[in-house]
User: Fold these one by one.
Assistant:
Number 1:
Amino acid sequence: MDVGRPIEAELDGEPAHRGAHHVQSLERGLAVIKAFHAGAAELTLSDVARATGLTRAAARRFLLTLTDLGYVRTDGKYFSLTARVLELGYSYLSSMTLPEVAQPHLERLSAEVHESSSVSVLEGTDIVYVARVAVSRIMTVSINVGTRFPAYATSMGHVLLAGLSAAELEAYFVVARLDRLTERTVTAPDRLRAELAKVTAQGWAMVDQELEEGLRSVAAPIRNRTGRVVAAVNLSTHASRTTAESVEKNLVPPLLETARAIEADLAVGAPGRAHG
C-alpha cells in the first residue's frame, strides 16, 4: 500500500507566503528525503525529480550531497535512504515525554486485552506513530515508531482530526487527499465531517477496514492540561475475530481508561504510574 504523497511542484517556484528568511534549498533537500516512503524505498534520479518537482540537475545535486553526508546510498542507478535519517527524528522523539509516559500503559493495556496498541500524533495530514506495543501482526505493512498513515482512514486520525479547531479542520480539508484505500474507505468530505462530529460526541472513534481490509481499530483522545487533544491511543484487531459490537463492549472501556491514565501522568510528568 502506498502511504506516501508526492511533494508539491511549487518547489520549482517561489513558495507562497514565505518570509525573507526562507531558505529554499533546505526545503528542497527535505523534499528529496520525503520523496522516499514505504511504497518507494528505491528511486531513480528521474523518480525523485518527478516526485519533488525539481529539475533532474537539481535533484542530482541534492541526492549526491545527501549521499556525501551519509543519508542516502546509491548503486549508480537507484537511490535509497540509509538508517542515518533516523537521527533527524531522534532528537524530537527523545525530547518528548509522551512516548516514555505512554509505553508502560500500552504494555498493560495490550496484556489485558491481548491486542496491539499504539499512540500517535498528527503531523500535516498524516498520523505518526510515537509508541507501540504489537501483540500480533495484522497488517501487510509493518508498523513501527515513525510509521505514517493518512489520518482520514485511521481511528487515531479521526480522533486527532476531531480535536482540531474549526479553522484547523478547514485547512486540513483544503490540502488532504481522500484516496480510496479499500471499498470501505470514506472519501466524501461531508461523510468524514459527520463521522468526526460523532467522534466528538461519543469521545472515541472506530474505523472498520478503511485503511486495510480486515483491520478494525478503535481510538481515544489524549488531552493536555488545557483540554486540547495532543495525541491518540488505539487498539487494533482483525475483523475476522471480533465484531464491531464486541470491540465497543470489550475494548473501548479499557482504552478510555488507558487514555485517562496517560493524561494523568502527562499532567504530572511521571512516567508509567499505575492505573490506581
Note: The longest strand covers residues 229-238.
Number 2:
Amino acid sequence: MKIKDISKFLSLVLRHEPGRIGITLDENGWTDCRELIEAAGRHGMSFNYETLVEVVHTNDKQRFSFSEDGKRIRANQGHSVTVDLSLEPQVPPEFLYHGTVAKFLDSIRGGGLHKGERHHVHLSPDLVTATKVGARRGKPVILSIRAAEISAAGQPFYVTANGVWLTDAVPPEFIDFP
C-alpha cells in the first residue's frame, strides 16, 4: 500500500466519513490507532502501526497528529464532521494567504471567503503553502488576507498543530486581490 493512498484514506475517514469503516471520533476528533488499523484492514486498506507513524510524520501538510501517548490519532483540521479541536484564539500575523483559482474570484469578490461544509476557512502563513493549495485545482491565484485587521475587528483566529490558520469567514473588504 502506498503512503499517499493511506494518507488520502486517512483524510477521508478522520475528517469526513469515520462511519465508512465503522470507527468513531470522540468530541475532539481522536480515534484509537489500533481500532483504526483493524477497521481499515477490514475495508481493504491494510497497514500497520509503523506505516501509520510514517504517514503522519512524512505528510507534507502535517494533516494528522498522534496523542501524547501515541495511542490515538486525529486530523489537524478540515473536518466536515463535528469535532472540537480545543484550539485557543490566537493573534494572527498582519497577512495570511489563501490559494484559489480564477473561476472562484468573482464569487469571492462578492461575498468573501466562507467555510462551506468545513468548520473554518483555511489560511496559509506563507505564499509557498498558499500556492500549493491553489495549485490543487489548476493555476493558483493567491489572495492576501489582512488578518490583523479582521482580528482587531473582533473576529477570532486559531492556528492548528501544523500551522494552518482558521477563522469563520473573510469579508471581501479584507482581501487584497491580485
Note: The mean pLDDT is 93.
Number 3:
Amino acid sequence: MRYKKHGWPQEDEIVLCTVTNVQYNSVFCTLDEYDQNGKPPSGMIHISEVSAGRIRNIREFVSEGKKVACKILKVDRERGHIDLSLRRVGEGQRRDKNLTLKQEQKAENILEHLAKEHKKDPAEFYDQVAPAILEHYEYIFMAFEDIVEDKFSLKDTSLDAKIAKMIEDTVKEKIKPKQVQIEGIFSITTYAENGVAKVRDALIKASEAANKSDIRYLGAGKYKITVIAEEFKDAEKLLKSATDAFDKSFKGDAFAEVGFERIEVKK
C-alpha cells in the first residue's frame, strides 16, 4: 500500500504493524502506515501487552512477518521509542482497522488503474494526486465516498481540472453509494371475508410509508420487509413508519392477529 502518514502516531491510536522480531519477553514491529525518513518507524510490544493472562510461549500469539493491529500506548520522540499493545485492541477495533485499510487499498487500485490507462507511472501519479486529497481527508477512500455522495469535489483541490474530472468520473463508476439495509418480518393471520384484500392494502401502505421498500411473501402468512437508506437512523425511521402503517391498517380488527419481528443482520 502506498498510503503513508508522516511524523509520529498519537497515543491510543490503532495502527497496523508487521512483526519483525520475536524475543523471549518482547515483540518488535514496524508501523506499516507511517514513514520517517523513507522507512517505517518501529515499536515494541512487551510480553504483558501481547495477551491477557500468563503466556508460556510468546510465539503462540505472534511470529515474524505477521500483520497485527496494535494500540499506541506511549511515544517517546526523544528516544524514538514507541510502546505498543496487542491485547488492548478489541475485535471490533481490529475489524474496523482492517476494513479501513482494505477500502484505502481499493482507492489506490482505482488510481493505479487510471495511471496505467493513461500511460502514467502509478507511483508518480499517486504522489501527484494523493497530497491534494489528503489535505482534506485522513484517507483517500473517504474523499472518494463523499465524491460519490456529491459531498466533495476534486475541483476544490489543487489538482488539475482535467485530472480531477477524470478521477471523479471513474470513482462514480467504480464505487457504489453507501447504504444501510435492515429487515423485519410481518406475520398476519386473518379470518375476515375480505382478509386477502385487507392484507394486500396493509402491505402496500407499509411499503409506501417506508419509501417504497421491498416486501416479499415468505409463506404461512409471513412477509419480509427490506428497508435501504444512506444512514442507519434513516433506515430505522423508515422501518418504524412501515410498521406503524401496517399496525394502523388492522387497528380494532377482531378477526386479525398481526405481529412484527426484527431480523438481526450480521455485520
Note: The mean pLDDT is 93.
